Amino acid sequence: MARMRATFDQALAYSIERHAFGQSIASFQANRFYLAELATEIEVTQVFVDRCILDASNHELDEVTAAMAKWWVTELHQRVIQRAVQLHGGYGFMTEYAVAQDYLDSRVATIFGGTTEIMKEIIGRRLTRP
Fold first, then answer.
1. Considering only CA atoms, which of 76, 78, 67, 60 is closest in space to residue 115?
2. pLDDT tens digits, 85-99
3. How many domains in the chain?
4. What is the secondary structure of 25-55 as a DSSP string?
5. Are 50 and 2 spatial neighbours (Cβ–Cβ below 8 Å)?
6. Tens of pLDDT, residues 42-63
7. Domain that holds residue 80
8. pLDDT in tens, 59-75
9. Which residues pair with 24 in a beta bridge?
């Protein structure tokens, strides 16, 4: 969550600073919509993660909820990074920018600790258990 928020905050700041066609790229409606969607998804996800942390501290977090959190957070982080790279344009691929390094470092999160598909299998088995 912290890395995802940092990526989003950097992309937001960059999109406000970067100008194209005489205006900040954050002022274009499509970019505002992307930023609004991601900001909302990040906030909703934070509430879910906070609940998971509380449940874990009370020894009440089950494997299905943990799988949901792992799947959702890592995949959302990928969407945030993808949009951040897009907002940065060519600079998004230059390792001098944090977003490029985050792009390189974060992809493995959807794999280690159990792939997204394994998380879905854990969830699906519980849902379909008689």
1. 67
2. 999 999 999 999 999
3. 1
4. GGGSHHHHHHHHHHHHHHHHHHHHHHHHHHH
5. no
6. 999 999 999 999 999 999 999 9
7. 2-128
8. 999 999 999 999 999 99
9. 19
Beta pairing partners, 19: 24
Going by C-beta distance under 8 Å and a sequence separation of 6 or more, which residues neighbour residue 78? 106, 107, 110
Residue 116 sits in a domain of what CATH number? Answer: 1.20.140.10
d(CA 39, CA 51): 19
Nearest to 11 by CA among 61, 83, 69: 83
Instruction: Tokens for 114, please give them.
Output: 């159990």
Q: What's the whole-number average pLDDT of the chain?
A: 95
Q: What is the pLDDT of residue 129?
A: 86
Residue with token string 């995949």: 75
In this structure, what token pair is assigned to residue 87?
A: 């907002």
